[in-house]
Amino acid sequence: MTNTLTKDQATGRTTTAGYAARIEHVSKSFAGPAGRQLVLDDITLDVAPGEFVTLLGASGCGKSTLLNLVAGLDKPSVGSIATPGGRPALMFQEHALFPWLTAGKNIELALRLRGVAKTERRTEAERLLDLVRLGGAYRKRVHELSGGMRQRVALARALAQDSQLLLMDEPFAALDAITRDVLHDELTRIWRETQLSVLFVTHNVREAVRLAERVVLLSSRPGRIAREWTVGIEQPRRIEDAAVAELSVEITEELRGEIRRHGQH
Amino acid sequence: MASTETSSEAKAKPDSHDLAGLEAGLDALDAVQSHRTPVSEVLLKKVLPPVVAVVLVVALWQALVWAKVTDEGSLPAPSAVWDSVSKLWMAGTLLEVVWTSVSRGLLGFLLALAIGTPLGLLVARVKFVRAAIGPILSGLQSLPSVAWVPPAVIWLGLNNQMMYAVILLGAVPSIANGLVSGVDQVPPLFLRAGRTMGATGLKGTWHIVMPAALPGYVAGLKQGWAFSWRSLMAAEIIASSPDLGLGLGQLLENGRNNADMPGVFLAILLILLVGIAIDLLLFSPLERAVLRGRGLLVKN
Ligand SMILES: Nc1ncnc2c1ncn2[C@@H]1O[C@H](COP(=O)(O)OP(=O)(O)OP(=O)(O)O)[C@@H](O)[C@H]1O
Ligand SMILES: [Mg+2]
């Protein structure tokens, strides 16, 4: 009995917890010039194992703040956050690749910090580069890669952490439309292959609908969960699909309403 | 025929082959083309200008001598300086003199490196240490190292230890300060990325902070070498004694004592040349390699 249990724990990626992240009554305030400023107010949100959730909200509503809290880079003022699968991987809007390392070595550093044996790192790094379709880029320096390629290496590096939860903070915001479209397809494919849980932050409604199983809308000042939508459209979707456009219109209306509310007082 | 087939297939569904092809196209369009400059271009753009400058300076020098601006004792002809070079060479002491100073300078520099690096890291990373000695360390940089020669002679006597002490006092602050400013300039994004990957504490210092601070550190090393060399020359000029061996500083001082102006010129030129040569052979390539690896070297 004990034997099978340990084996399960060693190999299985599924947690017994039933969620990949649990955010409970989280508030966050910062000391500002006009006293303490409440940025996030009583956020409660679960991300199920294998689920893809997008967090949508106007600029400055606290999306990055929430993601940093989940990543453990900062502590909530009130409430608790649990990520039973260990330290989540985090991808930023800027690629955050280390310029003193090649693409391959960037990934190997993540593997090394995770404790992967030296002999296995090279093969594993090449497998991950293949996964993001950059098989030939192992020796490339960061400055030799295009913006889209950099984000794909950054994705591979995040995957190298072998975390069950991937946090993404507007990772494609700086890319041109065609490249972003390609990366949406890649991300959906990789998410389905790896069965990761993803919490993806964006202020682009169409992007949110294109990617997610569930869209969570945050209100601004303070950030609260305003509404949620379950996206029933089958993957692979395209950003120009009629169903995607239809839901986007509905969500955009709601988002506009949220923003308008602030102009009234 | 084949092309219509693939395009109709692509329209049917966004399958992975289509995506891979699109991606390959994007990558090819965006990838940065880097190439090395040919040797002839390097010669023309990097070697020719300084050679021309040196030739002009020597020509001007010779012209001044011919115009008899001052007497021979104040301004020797280039040929007179050349004569004392060959005299020294014939006596077999030229390389020996240069080596005495260079070996002292480099050894002192390595010592300064071994002390300045951990010191800089401590100041950069430990708040208390920074508050305690940070200001003193940057203040020391503006103190001319020649000021350390008299106390060093009193403490240690006229020997090699005293030379190394003066080099250390001159170079350690530069190296430590270079590292501190290198660490201060590490983008916070790298630190945050490192932390999410588990690079905290010593691991963070080793894998993220140190490599990210390398450009500032190398700049500090460059300056540290310049300070080492200056300090050493000051020490050699002031503290010449027969049992210290003949270095470039003593050569200069001997020239002055003997009113041998070509000898003085020779010593100054040698001191200058050695300083430039070490920088050109050691530190500039190092700096360029570091910057080029990061795509920070702007081609013009
Ligand atoms: N460390 C901090 N100290 C003080 N205020 C902060 C800090 N971090 C964030 N804030 C404030 O919190 C609010 C939310 O910031 P945050 O970066 O989370 O917004 P965001 O939703 O990610 O916006 P964007 O879409 O522009 O990225 C902003 O008003 C910001 O000024
Ligand atoms: Mg943000």
Automatic annotation (TrEMBL), chain A:
Record GO terms (molecular function): ATP binding
Signal peptide: none
Keyword NAD applies: no
All residue ranges annotated as the ABC transporter domain in the record: 21-247
This protein's UniProt keywords: ATP-binding, Nucleotide-binding, Transport
Record-linked InterPro entries: AAA+_ATPase, ABC_transporter-like_ATP-bd, ABC_transporter-like_CS, ABC_transporter_ATP-bind, P-loop_NTPase
Pfam families, sorted: ABC_tran (PF00005)
Name this protein carries in UniProt: ABC transporter ATP-binding protein
Organism: Streptomyces albipurpureus
TrEMBL record, chain B:
Record carries keyword Membrane: yes
Bilayer-spanning residue ranges: 47-67, 105-124, 136-156, 162-183, 204-221, 264-284
Classification via InterPro entries: MetI-like, MetI-like_sf
Residues covered by the ABC transmembrane type-1 domain: 98-282
Keyword vocabulary terms for this entry: Cell membrane, Membrane, Transmembrane, Transmembrane helix, Transport
Membrane topology: Multi-pass membrane protein
Main location: membrane
Similarity annotation: Belongs to the binding-protein-dependent transport system permease family.
Protein name, entry field: ABC transporter permease
